[in-house]
Write a structure and sequence with these properties.
two-stranded antiparallel ribbon; 9 helices; 434 Repressor (Amino-terminal Domain); elongated; mainly alpha
Amino acid sequence: MTVGEKIRKFRTEQNLLQKDLAQKCRMSESAIRNYELGNRTPSPKHLEVIASALGVSVFAISEPNLNSELGVMHALFEMEENYNLKVVEENGIYCLQAAPKKRGQASISDLVIEWGEANKKYQAGEMTKEEYAHWKDTFPESIAINRRK
């Protein structure tokens, strides 16, 4: 989901018009419209103002930053929503589970299974570190390679 789509999502969930959000942010209505349409990208400062006006974390409306723990968490939250990723606890250990897809959703579980199979081969010594890295670098084309071995 793009930054603009996220802004629109949170704005409409709160039954706010673009005009209402613009007033709360002390911005123009056209700025909010252009952000939502993807014609412009808000600066980090404007993202903070919009997030504050919507009552959400700036990480919830930003592009995922996978170089920070909070960015990774918000990427996982989005994956939970869009791909049916689940957090499960067994004996005090929390894991991510790629649940079977819901109607109309991409099947992340099938892709995670492929990854798990490649990783299992790497851990068993059936793939070298270089082969495993190449498998990841060429994914999804590498799925066919994984099935042949």
